[in-house]
Amino acid sequence: MQTTIDPQEVAKFEAMAAEWWDPTGKFKPLHMMNPVRLDYIVTQIAAEFGRDLASDNPFEGLRLLDIGCGGGLLSEPMARLGATVVGADAAERNIPVAQVHAEQSGLEIDYRNTTAEALAEAGEQFDVVLNMEVVEHVADPLAYLTACQQLLKPGGLMICSTLNRNPKSYAMAIFGAEVVMRWLPRGTHEWKKFITPDELFDLISKAGLNPVDRKGFVFNPILWSWSTSARDLSVNYVTASIKPE
What we know:
The protein has eight helices and eight strands. By secondary structure, the chain is α/β, with parallel strands linked by helices. Strands 3-2-1-4-5-8-6-7 form an eight-stranded mixed beta sheet. Strand 4, helix 6 and strand 5 form a beta-alpha-beta unit. The model has no long low-confidence stretch (mean pLDDT 88).
C-alpha cells in the first residue's frame, strides 16, 4: 500500500508527544492559535450541514476524522459538540497521550495509529475531515490530499490549514518561532515544504475537491493574540473544500 508518510517528520512529533497538553511547552503556539482554528472549523461545519450551534450536541450524527490528530486538541472539542470522532496519527507515541487525556475528560474518541491512505484503503467514510497543519509534513501532498478526498462522503467537507511559503513565513514560523522564541525545536518545519494558497487550491482541485473558502490566521505580537483575516494569508492560513455530490 502506498503511503505519503515522511518518517523523519513523524519522528519529530513523536519526540514531543508527551507535551501535547502543556500550554507552555513545545506546542504553545498551537494552544495559542487553537481558539481561532476552532472558530473557523465550527462555523464551516455548521454552515455546510445546517447545524444550530446554540443547540445541544449540534454535530450529532456527523462522523468526523481528525487526521494528524496529535494529542487531540481538535478531536476533543469536536466530540464535545456531538460528532463521532476518529483521531488518526502516524506518530505512534501520540495515540496513548490522546487516549489518556480523552478518558480523563470523559470523552469517547476512536484514536488510531494509522494513515489517511490506510483508512481510505479500508473504505472508511466521513462527513468531515480535519486536515490541520499536516500537508506541509507529508512526502507527497497531492497523493495525501487525494486520500483525504477518498475518505469524504459525497457532499463532505475538508478543512485544511498549512503555512504559506514566502520570506515573511520564514521569518515568523521558522526564525521567530524556532530560533528567537524557541517555541518549537529547531527543524520542526522545513520552509521549502510550505505551500502557497494558490498551490494548495490547485492541489485540492486536482485531488477531486471543490475549494470554497480560505482565510488567514494572523498573529498580533502587540496584543499577543490570534485572529482570522479574509485578506492576510501571508503566514498561517486555512481552506475549506467540498466533495462533489
